Amino acid sequence: MPEKYMTRTILLISFTLALSIGLYGQKGIDKQTDKIRDAGSTSQSSGESSNSYSWGKDKTRIRKMLPNPYPMTSRRDVLIDIVVSLLKDRKMIVDEAASRFDDGLIITQPFTFSKGAILTKSELNRYATLPGYETIWTRGRLSLIVEIQSLDGIKNSVSVTAKVEGRSGNGLFSEWATLQSTGIAEDEFLAALVQNVVGDLPEGERRP
Fold first, then answer.
1. Taking CA atoms, which of 24, 34, 43, 125 is between 20 and 30 Å from 53?
2. Nearest to 105 by CA among 58, 162, 164, 145
């Protein structure tokens, strides 16, 4: 074979190999890009969100519900300050016009803890007993009434009542409905209060 034809053949083979390697590498980059793109779309797949409302439900040990009212040993003015601080930490606004601090009564304004039809039903179902008929719930909110009754100098009875409401609608008309509380919201707040005052729940109340 003439030398010039042999040179052309070698150049053609070299070019083909270089092109194959480039295409193979490009496929690898595309796959990696697809993985990154898929991960990003998964993390943003839900456009609905719920407000942060948790008294530690994600860390709660299996236990029986606390007595409500709950007996607590502390000065009442100290308990009132702790209650107000706990509420503010959870972004709940104390209704100062309705509250009577001198009487140990603290009332919050309604706090919206869930928005969007996808999340609201499950969140409402945790804090309230839903009616049997099918309803599209778009928001959930609650307000707390905390009453601290002094039994003597340092002994108090703390009761918590939750008003749970759900907003339903069909796009043209919507309204808030008051629902029967399951007692979970009250229990979560009492547990947070007890742990804040004494450091932990009594052993018997941490068991199933």
1. 43
2. 145
Question: CB of 118 within 8 A of CB of 46?
Answer: yes
Among all chains, which residue has been given the structure tokens 């998964």?
42
**Dihedral pair phi/psi, residue 142, rounded to 5°:** -150, 155
Give the contacts of 129 (CB within 8 A, at least 6 positions apart): 179, 180, 181, 182
pLDDT, tens digit, 9 for 90 and up, residues 140-162: 999 999 999 999 888 999 999 99
Radius of gyration of the chain (CA): 30
Contacts for 24 with CB less than 8 Å, ≥ 6 apart = none
Nearest to 94, CA basis, from 166, 85, 102: 85
Question: Could you tell me the pLDDT band of residue 10, with boundaries at 50, 70 and 90?
Answer: low
Question: Could you give the angle at the alpha carbon of 104 between the alpha carbons of 102 and 109, nearest 5°?
Answer: 105
Q: What's the pLDDT at 153?
A: 80
Tell the residue number behind the tokens 């948790």, with chain if given: 54
SS3 category, 2? coil
C-beta separation of 127 from 140 below 8 A: yes
In 100-183, alpha helices (H): 117-127
CA distance 2 to 184: 91
Residue with tokens 């709940």: 92
For the chain, what percent of residues have pLDDT higher than 70? Answer: 65
